Structures are given as structure tokens and as C-alpha cells.
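call fold(seq) -> C-alpha cells
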Amino acid sequence: MGSVEIQQELNRLEEMILSSFHIPLTRRTLVDEEKLLDQLDFIRVSLPSVFQEAAAIIEQKQEILLSAEEYGQQIVEAAQAKRAQILAESDIIRQAQTEALLLRQEVQLECDAMMEDTLAEIERKRRACQQELEEIRQIAIAQAQEIENGADTYADSVLENIEQNLTDMLRVIRNGREQLYPDTPPHNNSSPGKKK
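ret:
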């Protein structure tokens, strides 16, 4: 899965949240926790494909390095062949050895530079993937916290309304009893009209 597919899965995650039940009179939304976690797991499982892309880049770099090594070997072999042709001339031999050594060093430097570039690219992609995972995790945690806070607020509001209604009903009942039995003390637990 490439970055486009990962983006699509993130869009599905966002759509799941936006299409969930909205708590009235709040900016909170109730999300199906199981579906949310399933989607996050799917994204987490899909991320290794990004690492496969990085591995493909490494393989391509390795091919370049092999080609450079072969090229270097060819240069060394050519230098050795040239040296073999002029064994009788010591100055030319020394010059050929020096040139071969310089060429070998140059090729080695180029190979080292390519390897450093490859490793730097791999590290950059690894850090980008880790950062993206951490951002997704933080967003999910923040949204879950928001949902939990919203649910608590909504439940408290409902309970407050029920409490108010029960208080009103209790007041009406007390007023009715006081009107039926005006001579009875307000907090008498015995039934009005009964004699002890």
C-alpha cells in the first residue's frame, strides 16, 4: 500500500468519525470504538508497504553500487593490463600503480557517498513513517478523549433533568398532601386520618 492508499484509509477514518452519532446541543460525537480501532489496526498493518518502497529504493541503490564496483574493477583490471605491457619501464610502472590506486580510491569514495545517501534516505523515510504513526495515534487518543468527555457531559445533563423533574414531582405530591390534610405536620410519616 502506497501513500495514496494510506491517505484513503485516513479519509475513511475521518468519514467514520464525521458520520457517527452527534450528541445534541454539543460538539461531541459518539464513535463506534470497535470500528475505530479496527480501522486504526488496518492502517497500522498497511504501513509496512511503505517500508517495502524504501526497500525497493535500497535495492536500486545496491544495483548502482554493484555497477560502480564493476566499473571500478574494470578500471583496475585495465590499469593492471596497462602495467603488464610496460613492465620494463619502472617509472611508467610506478605511474600506472599510482593511477590505479587513485582510481580505486575515487571509486571507493563514490561508492561510500552513494551508500551514505542511501542510508540517509532510508532513515528519513523511517522517521517520516514513525512520525505519521505517532500523529495518527495522538489524533485517535484526543478524539477518544473528546468522545468520552462529551458522553459524560451528556449523561450528566440527562441526569440533571431527571433530578429536576423528580424534585418538581415531589414538591407537587407534598403540596397535594398538605391540601388534603392541612392539620397534619409536614414530615409526619404516619398516614393522615389514621388514629394511633
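The first strand starts at residue 21 and ends at 22.
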